Amino acid sequence: MSGPILSVRKLAVTFAQGGGPDIPAVEGASFDVGAGETVAIVGESSSGKSVTAMALLGLLPAGAGTVVSGQALFRRDGENAVDLLALPDRAMRAIRGRDISMVFQDPMTSLNPVLTIGEQIAEVLMTHDGLTRRQAQAMAIEMLARVGLRDPGQIVAHYPGQLSGGMRQRVMIAIALACRPRLLIADEPTTALDVTVQAQILALLRGLQAEMGMAIIFITHNIGVVAQVADRIVVMYSGQVVENAPVRDALDSPLMPYSRVLFRTVPTYDAVLARRQRLPTIPGHVPDPRHRPQGCTFHPRCAHFRPGVCDGFRPSLESARSGHEVRCVRWEEIARG
Amino acid sequence: MTDTFVSRLARMVVTLAIVSVTGFLLLHLAPGDPLAQFALSPGMTETQLGMIRHQMGLDVPLPVQYLVWVKGLLFGDWGRSFRDHQPVLTIIFGHLGATLELAGTASLLATWAGASMGVYGAFRQGSRGDTMMTILSVVLLSIPTFWFGLVFISLFSVRLGWLPSGNIHTVGGAFSPGDYLRHLFLPAIVLALGSTAIWSRYTRNAVAEVLGQDYIRTARAKGLSPRRIRYRHVLRNALLPMITLAGLQFPTLLSGALVTETVFTWPGIGRLFLDSLEYRDYPVAMGILMFSAVLATFGSILTDALYAVADPRLRVSRQ
């Protein structure tokens, strides 16, 4: 791997709300994505993982008091890196859908209901690659075949309403990959689908990644999915990155107490059925972003909480071992047991 | 597809039947008598009045009068005016052109101005311009048409003398397009004001709703130009609810023309209707009522057809 294609540094996103205090949705998130690598961003709802993705592509609602700061250096084709957060609109548009594209959670609502599938794929190619309508349409058929849809020649003329959820997500993937992006951001791409369809979509994404070599940022709260697809895990909790490690390392020996319980909440067939064990849960809720606790934001829910140690100051993300970062002042003690 | 068509047609017949019975009853129950105009003539005797009554077919029971009238309607004989004995259809078609010109101009104006205002507001939600337009729409909607008509006449015709206060062209003058347009200007604007406000509110909501949809986020994530997103993705979807409004606005414009035509002495269907009510000219009043009802139902059928063309989801479900 020749250096990361995306380096996110101290990304912070704040939403102003009329009258009340600002909402810090993401606070100083930093992580790298290597070329061809799959990085899973995991966390509960409102941990800031989707906002992070939207901020990278400049898709957060403009105006309305949204403030994005930090850096996101993106390397297109070995050129010098550009900072995605500082790019003017026009330059950002040239990257969106071409160098970095995105697949969203709900395929039922993410496609335009009144345009044909073919047109929705073709317009990306016409916008970015300057293809003619005819060329783009031919390419659209090719892409539909690549994402495993049967009769692609017919499907181009269909409208989204004629396709099932799984088929629509394949179409979304075809749109996202039409211009051969270097980076694909998949925001919970399987959450809205049936379990069997989920597995097919994951297999498809992995197959296409092997073929086309793009990097993937995979946003999910499903740890089971992470184990299947990711090279690296970034765990987010209440707007911060709390652990960042290679997937095996993270799943086998998580250091941050939050990750430790989060990874244990995944039901396995053995644990749940055979041993009739109750699923472990994490007590409490993700704190309201407007009123985050002092010190480590996880301390009110943490089993290893030490008064005076954990609730004093925010711990910083420190390197525990090679490639493994953790945000916890007590990680060494806890790891020793 | 044929099922839908047949059931639509059946519904249309039922609607027209209800309109005809209700209209007929109300008209005959209302106080006043078509014979009043003759009764005041000097030297008119009871016998003569009875003869006129018989000629008009008013001396038989109401249900019979209704059936006679419906039978005529079905066979293309809409009766003759009590006032000048002209066939009703001839009179209606004689006035239809003026109304269509006025209502058509007004509806083009209203759609264009209202939709532009709505789109502007939806793309700049919460801006000063958006707020101003919301206020303007509410003001336009709260003030009745005749008030605008009178104010416009007093301002532009009486005070400033820029435009004529009524009629379709200068009385006694030769017809010229310029003269006609000058006469059309004020009534068309007055008639358009109310619908402009409705169009603007409706468009703003339709566009704002589409803007919040996931597929618009997808369009942005694809790196499309703002122009393409606006026309291809946003407006194309916002068009659907607007077709419905167009269908609903059509009858409204006709009823709005009633007031506007009266204020501006525009020789159209609306004024004809008021006149026929005043003279208790039952055949003409009923004829206009039925004619408008047919237009309105056709309008709604046309709306559905347009909707099916514009929305692929409807076409799909019918396959």
From TrEMBL, chain A:
<protein>
    <submittedName>
        <fullName>ABC transporter ATP-binding protein</fullName>
    </submittedName>
</protein>
<dbReference type="InterPro" id="IPR027417">
    <property type="entry name" value="P-loop_NTPase"/>
</dbReference>
<dbReference type="GO" id="GO:0055085">
    <property type="term" value="P:transmembrane transport"/>
</dbReference>
<dbReference type="GO" id="GO:0015833">
    <property type="term" value="P:peptide transport"/>
</dbReference>
<dbReference type="InterPro" id="IPR003593">
    <property type="entry name" value="AAA+_ATPase"/>
</dbReference>
<comment type="similarity">
    <text>Belongs to the ABC transporter superfamily.</text>
</comment>
<keyword id="KW-1003">Cell membrane</keyword>
<feature type="domain" description="ABC transporter">
    <location>
        <begin position="8"/>
        <end position="263"/>
    </location>
</feature>
<keyword id="KW-0813">Transport</keyword>
<dbReference type="GO" id="GO:0005524">
    <property type="term" value="F:ATP binding"/>
</dbReference>
<dbReference type="Pfam" id="PF00005">
    <property type="entry name" value="ABC_tran"/>
</dbReference>
<dbReference type="InterPro" id="IPR017871">
    <property type="entry name" value="ABC_transporter-like_CS"/>
</dbReference>
<dbReference type="InterPro" id="IPR013563">
    <property type="entry name" value="Oligopep_ABC_C"/>
</dbReference>
<keyword id="KW-0547">Nucleotide-binding</keyword>
<dbReference type="InterPro" id="IPR003439">
    <property type="entry name" value="ABC_transporter-like_ATP-bd"/>
</dbReference>
<dbReference type="InterPro" id="IPR050388">
    <property type="entry name" value="ABC_Ni/Peptide_Import"/>
</dbReference>
<keyword id="KW-0472">Membrane</keyword>
<dbReference type="GO" id="GO:0016887">
    <property type="term" value="F:ATP hydrolysis activity"/>
</dbReference>
<dbReference type="Pfam" id="PF08352">
    <property type="entry name" value="oligo_HPY"/>
</dbReference>
<keyword id="KW-0067">ATP-binding</keyword>
<dbReference type="GO" id="GO:0005886">
    <property type="term" value="C:plasma membrane"/>
</dbReference>
From TrEMBL, chain B:
<comment type="similarity">
    <text>Belongs to the binding-protein-dependent transport system permease family.</text>
</comment>
<dbReference type="InterPro" id="IPR045621">
    <property type="entry name" value="BPD_transp_1_N"/>
</dbReference>
<keyword id="KW-0813">Transport</keyword>
<feature type="domain" description="ABC transmembrane type-1">
    <location>
        <begin position="96"/>
        <end position="307"/>
    </location>
</feature>
<protein>
    <submittedName>
        <fullName>ABC transporter permease</fullName>
    </submittedName>
</protein>
<dbReference type="Pfam" id="PF19300">
    <property type="entry name" value="BPD_transp_1_N"/>
</dbReference>
<feature type="transmembrane region" description="Helical">
    <location>
        <begin position="238"/>
        <end position="264"/>
    </location>
</feature>
<keyword id="KW-0472">Membrane</keyword>
<keyword id="KW-0812">Transmembrane</keyword>
<dbReference type="Pfam" id="PF00528">
    <property type="entry name" value="BPD_transp_1"/>
</dbReference>
<dbReference type="GO" id="GO:0055085">
    <property type="term" value="P:transmembrane transport"/>
</dbReference>
<feature type="transmembrane region" description="Helical">
    <location>
        <begin position="135"/>
        <end position="160"/>
    </location>
</feature>
<dbReference type="InterPro" id="IPR000515">
    <property type="entry name" value="MetI-like"/>
</dbReference>
<dbReference type="InterPro" id="IPR035906">
    <property type="entry name" value="MetI-like_sf"/>
</dbReference>
<keyword id="KW-1133">Transmembrane helix</keyword>
<feature type="transmembrane region" description="Helical">
    <location>
        <begin position="180"/>
        <end position="199"/>
    </location>
</feature>
<dbReference type="GO" id="GO:0005886">
    <property type="term" value="C:plasma membrane"/>
</dbReference>
<feature type="transmembrane region" description="Helical">
    <location>
        <begin position="284"/>
        <end position="310"/>
    </location>
</feature>
<feature type="transmembrane region" description="Helical">
    <location>
        <begin position="12"/>
        <end position="30"/>
    </location>
</feature>
<keyword id="KW-1003">Cell membrane</keyword>
<feature type="transmembrane region" description="Helical">
    <location>
        <begin position="102"/>
        <end position="123"/>
    </location>
</feature>
